[in-house]
Amino acid sequence: MTTTESQSVSDAVTAGSHATDIARSGAATFRTAGGGADEARVATVVGAALEGIRSAIREHKVTYEEFDAFKRWLISVSDTGEWPLFLDVYLEFEVEKVAAETQDGSVGTILGPFWLDGQAQLDSPATLPMRDDEPGTPMILAGQVTATDGTPLAGAKVDIWHTDDEGWYSGFAAKPPAGNLRGVVTCDDQGRYEIHTRRPAPYTIPLDGPTGQMTLAAGWSPWRPAHIHLLVTAPGHRTLTTQLFFTGDPYLGHDVASADKPELTLDPQPTGNGDEVRSDRDFVLEAEGDRIQDSTPIGQRSSTSEAQ
Ligand code: BEZ
Ligand code: FE
């Protein structure tokens, strides 16, 4: 695919309503226990958000025509089920940055709306489910999962999902079969994992729905750089939610979801086996108790164990 072609994840309504169902079910409970509704907190945060919008109205002299267009746009975000998509594109990265201030271990980034529960359970070394003629460059991703003190985390799990070589996610687009290029890989007794897959491709958010239409109307790029999503888990440790990107990707630094970080870039090298490439990446998980006991931002602690 060239950089001028557009590769949408799916048609907006199909992908959006599926992502909405997942968000509504609360299936992503690996992350938080959910927020409380303390009155002062609601007044502070909701008040600040509303004041941000009111100040934009005042500063930019928003007209009734624009206000009505905004109402119609919000209604269509609901109608297409695009709330998870819109929120994960334009707001999740800020929430993740706030969370990261008090987290140790490997660098994380956003989850996004395309994680699915109940995927193939595989032992390392593992090959992700794929079609017999799965297109794309064969790729091995391998490494070790340890605690912050270097102890290998035997039996840690690496939940991995990414697009195919054309930028399609299984479960959200008609083309790839269910479960394609998704799996949950159990590490060996040294916390090591090795996953055989295909290198993913850049893609755009759906362009036929309100999130993509607003993005295009503002003249912003709708592209995400190619990436691999990972959830790395081990009992007693905080789940690491992250993504891995690729050096040389034209969309690095221009991610519509603002989720790429320099620390998360892979530089796969040829293995000598045909056109196969390999990248090695270790993950460090912080113990659950560490975070609860010390809410000082990592950068302000007296001794900091450097995350990868
Ligand atoms: C993704 O990570 O794939 C993603 C994140 C936010 C919005 C859309 C997609
Ligand atoms: Fe993605």
Automatic annotation (TrEMBL):
Domain Intradiol ring-cleavage dioxygenases per the UniProt entry, residue ranges: 141-169
Keywords of this entry: Dioxygenase, Iron, Metal-binding, Oxidoreductase
GO molecular function: dioxygenase activity
Cofactor: Fe(3+)
One Pfam family linked to the record: Dioxygenase_C
Biased composition (Polar residues): 294-308
InterPro entries, sorted: 1_2-CTD_multi_dom (IPR043029), Catechol_dOase_N (IPR007535), Intradiol_dOase_C (IPR000627), Intradiol_dOase_core (IPR015889), Intradiol_RC_Dioxygenase (IPR050770)
Chain intervals for the UniProt region annotation (Disordered): 261-280, 286-308
Family per record: Belongs to the intradiol ring-cleavage dioxygenase family.
Listed PANTHER family: DIOXYGENASE, PUTATIVE (AFU_ORTHOLOGUE AFUA_2G02910)-RELATED, INTRADIOL RING-CLEAVAGE DIOXYGENASES DOMAIN-CONTAINING PROTEIN-RELATED
Record protein name field: Dioxygenase
The organism of origin for this protein: Actinomycetospora atypica
